[in-house]
């Protein structure tokens, strides 16, 4: 397993105060607020939409440095919703790589799957055993990409060293891969992610909402996503704008069932 330290060429300097602006200029429910529309939610997954902070800067650096990776494979790992798939999509858009879920590799013909592609993204790669990663197929895909000068990107919740891999050759290949952890978010990143998640759902959240949510929520990417989704559902169901009283009510209800 290769742990290479690198810094992204450009790292966003995010602070809660900059994200929230001058909260004194906005009343409790003041400022323009947009009623959420019953439209399909499509997250913004471009490189400029990704919030860079200490917890993910190394991973961002390696994505930005592609194709100048020193080895054929990179594994991004971290908790659910931490941004692995977002970064992976950024890389896939740049590289033209194919995408496949690990459990869909079972029994697949590597030649037929890869074709003449120079890159492959395997998501949830640590789901080994049972319906998880087909180790033989993954081994052949790795070798094919290496031979043609291509690259393999894997996402997982754990580093390859903790995967239950039985095939020695595959274990050896993954042991030489670049490995980057994306850690749980700090306050600065949480603010940025909250603003992005609300914006993805066409919701304008005023500074008081962000300030209220920040000290009262679980510090995880998954909980951020679930909270914003619950707020959006409530606003749509009640045909209301997203205000502080609505957010407070949603959070109280979520605490009752947790």
Keywords summarizing the entry:
258 residues, alpha/beta, Rossmann fold, Helicase, Ruva Protein, domain 3, 2 domains, 5-stranded parallel sheet, 5 strands, elongated, disordered N terminus
Task: Kindly describe this structure.
The structure is a single chain. The chain is of the alpha/beta class. The protein folds into two domains: 125 residues, P-loop containing nucleotide triphosphate hydrolases (Rossmann fold); 75 residues, Helicase, Ruva Protein, domain 3 (Orthogonal Bundle). 41% of the residues lie in helices and 9% in strands. It contains ten helices and five strands. The chain has a five-stranded parallel β-sheet with strand order 2-3-4-1-5, with helices on both faces. Helix 8 runs parallel beside helix 10 and helix 9 crosses helix 10. 36% of the residues are buried.
Number of helices: 10
The portion of residues forming beta strands comes to 5-15%
Q: How would a crystallographer describe the biggest sheet?
A: 5 strands, parallel
Going by CATH, the architecture of the largest domain would be 3-Layer(aba) Sandwich
Mind telling me the C-alpha Rg? Answer: 21 Å
Overall domain count: 2
- Stated plainly, the CATH topology of the largest domain is called Rossmann fold
Class by helix and strand content?
Answer: alpha/beta
Q: Give the overall shape, derived from the CA principal axes.
A: elongated
Please write the CATH class name of the largest domain.
Alpha Beta
Element order: H for helix, E for strand = HHEHEHEHEHEHHHH
Oligomeric state of the chains present here = single chain
Q: Order of strands across the widest beta sheet?
A: 2-3-4-1-5
Identify low-pLDDT runs: 3-44
What is the average per-residue confidence, as pLDDT, rounded to a whole number? Answer: 82
Instruction: Determine the fraction of residues in helical runs and give it as a percent range.
Output: 40-55%
Counting DSSP E segments of at least 2 residues, the number of strands comes to: 5
Question: How far apart, in Å, are the first and last alpha carbons?
Answer: 38 Å
Fourth-level CATH superfamily of the largest domain: P-loop containing nucleotide triphosphate hydrolases
